[in-house]
Specification:
The protein has helices at 2-9, 30-42, 55-65. By secondary structure, it is mainly α. It has a domain at 24-67. α2 (30-42) runs parallel beside α3 (55-65). The longest helix has 13 residues, at 30-42. It starts with a helix and ends with a helix.
């Protein structure tokens, strides 16, 4: 959050693009992770996905991001 704030405070990347952190709790359940990943991509229009923890949940996202 500190890094995001630092960039946002100077106007973002190239004075245009700012960062927001959107986080959803998957309760370490692959089905929830897949649902949340789909939500981030389709509803929130995210630029990047990061911070996935664990093999089962990470594997659950592959189906979504490969499409």
């Amino acid at each position: 959050m500190a890094a995001f704030k630092e960039v946002n405070d100077i106007g973002g990347v190239k004075g245009n693009y700012t960062f927001d952190l959107i986080a959803y709790d998957d309760q370490y359940e692959p089905v929830n992770t897949t649902t949340n990943t789909n939500r981030l991509i389709t509803n929130d229009n995210v630029f990047a996905l990061m911070g996935y923890v664990g093999t089962p949940t990470s594997l659950g996202t592959l189906f979504v991001i490969e499409w």
